[in-house]
Design goal:
Cytochrome p450-Terp, domain 2; 19 helices; about 55% helix; mainly alpha; binds carboxymethyl coenzyme *A; 2 domains; Citrate Synthase, domain 1; 3 strands
Length: about 425
């Protein structure tokens, strides 16, 4: 690893549009070997964690660096579950969204709004030295990890017009989430333990992925000294994009559009002609099978045992088979990523398609917070990437009366002259 300052000493700077080959921090949280399809959290293989751990245990591991003892896990779990309740004003705030608001838009806004509910966490009001105190750091972590599922469930219930369900602290993290999503009038509502476990595994697989776009966002925003609610809201906003966490939603919509196995060859031709992208395929880092996609496929079978087989899986499996034997995909090392199968599982579990990125955000919040905490401990200068200026050379100011139209008028096409209302005299 060569420090970039080495080049500046020689009067050189590096152009790296999209950070294809630039490290902006040192981190000890997760490790990816993209050529061999390896993912580790704090040194542990993702396969072992998915098999033996719970999501809440993995969250502790990511944030604090080691697997918790039984006592540490109990304390951590209690702290998180105690912070699952949200202020009643937050419920009112979420109720103010339109009935058809995208749940990810609601979630991003609600996380940002948390900043106003916890003014003692504001660096604008109290200075960024408040986070020299580990108790302040931990308190915001408990709140964010604990409240994310609650906010997500409120967003879901608002969309379908059902009253919000208060958290049940007798259940575990993921069981409580499903409880808040689904309980109606039952006095005892117990989510199916096999589905709880399947979702828990999916959360483990999504919890961290080194410096992806949304995690880079948490570090970028955090480097300004802003509070973690604003930073995590910014990360969730980055996650929303279809190239990133929104890919699970896009992948399922794509599979449904393809509809049946006979339509795959025509779709593949469109992809190869660059008219479409095969969503849920390809990765900046993995040039091999994403290990998370393998585990997802296994989890899909577990979910089908309970919910029934979703026929769209046949389209996905055949699409994968055809793509993996096609020269276009082989040459570019394009394999299924985590989002190729996750959407099918979510759909089979009954989650609406636009809710998929929300599920991703619940899990990834722990990764974002691990990076936020690590950055606080390591310290960082404010992120200020350079740009390569490609604009015009210095020129004389032109007065209005001397200007010739240099702007492409089509920019304003369809707006009417000066934005006038044609129905108004
Ligand atoms: N379908 C068709 N062609 C693709 C795809 C795809 N999904 N992904 C990459 N390519 C092609 C691309 O057109 C390019 O071809 P060429 O060399 O002829 O110009 C080549 O493969 C290299 O692609 P790239 O865009 O330079 O690769 P990247 O590393 O910049 O992009 C990616 C990575 C994930 C944005 C991209 O693969 C993609 O858009 N995939 C679909 C969206 C998706 O599934 N995203 C989820 C990623 S995993 C979850 C997460 O971590 O957020």
């Amino acid at each position: 690893m060569i420090p970039a300052s080495f080049f500046s000493q020689m009067g050189l700077s590096l152009y790296d549009n999209g950070y294809l080959n630039t490290s902006v921090c040192r981190s000890t949280i997760s490790y990816i070997d993209g050529d061999r399809g390896i993912l580790r959290y704090r040194g542990y293989n993702i396969e072992d964690l998915a098999e033996h751990s719970s999501f809440i245990e993995v969250s502790y591991l990511l944030i604090y660096g080691h697997l918790p003892t039984r006592t540490q896990l109990d304390t951590w779990n209690t702290r998180i579950m105690r912070h699952t309740y949200v202020h009643e004003n937050m419920i009112d705030y979420m109720k103010s969204f339109r009935y058809d608001a995208h749940p990810m838009g609601m979630l991003v806004s609600a996380i940002a709004a948390m900043s106003t509910f916890h003014p003692e966490a504001s660096t604008a009001l109290h200075g960024d030295q408040i986070y020299d105190d580990p108790r302040m750091v931990n308190k915001q972590i408990f709140r964010l990890v604990g409240k994310l599922p609650t906010l997500a469930a409120i967003a879901y219930r608002h969309r379908i017009g059902r009253p919000y369900v208060y958290p049940n602290q007798d259940l575990d993290f993921t069981g409580n989430f499903l409880f808040m999503m689904d309980r109606l009038s039952e006095t005892t509502y117990t989510p199916n333990p096999a589905l709880v476990r399947a979702l828990d595994v999916i959360f483990i697989l999504h919890a961290d992925h080194e410096l992806n776009c949304s995690t880079a966002a948490v570090r970028q925003l955090g480097s300004t000294g802003i509070d973690p609610y604003i930073s995590v809201a910014g990360s969730a906003a980055a996650l929303y994009g279809p190239m990133h966490g929104g890919a699970n939603e896009a992948a399922l919509r794509m599979l449904e559009e393809i509809g049946s196995v006979e339509n795959i060859p025509a779709f593949i031709e469109e992809v190869k002609a660059k008219k479409r992208k095969l969503m849920g395929f390809g990765h900046r880092v993995y040039k091999f099978y994403d290990p998370r996609a393998k585990l997802m496929r296994k989890t899909a079978e577990e979910v089908f045992k309970i919910m029934g087989r979703n026929p769209i899986i046949d389209v996905a499996v055949e699409l994968e088979r055809i793509a993996l034997s096609d020269e276009y995909f082989i040459k570019r090392n394009l394999y299924p990523n985590v989002d190729f199968y996750s959407g099918i599982i979510y759909k089979s579990m009954g989650f609406p398609t636009d809710f998929f990125p929300v599920l991703f955000a619940i899990a990834r919040t722990t990764g974002w917070l691990a990076h936020w905490r690590e950055q606080l401990m390591e310290g960082t200068p404010i992120f200020r990437p350079a740009q390569a200026y490609d604009g015009v050379s210095p020129r004389e100011y032109v007065k209005m009366e001397d200007r010739e139209s240099a702007v492409d008028e089509s920019v304003f096409a369809g707006y009417g002259a000066g934005g006038a209302n044609p129905r108004k005299l």
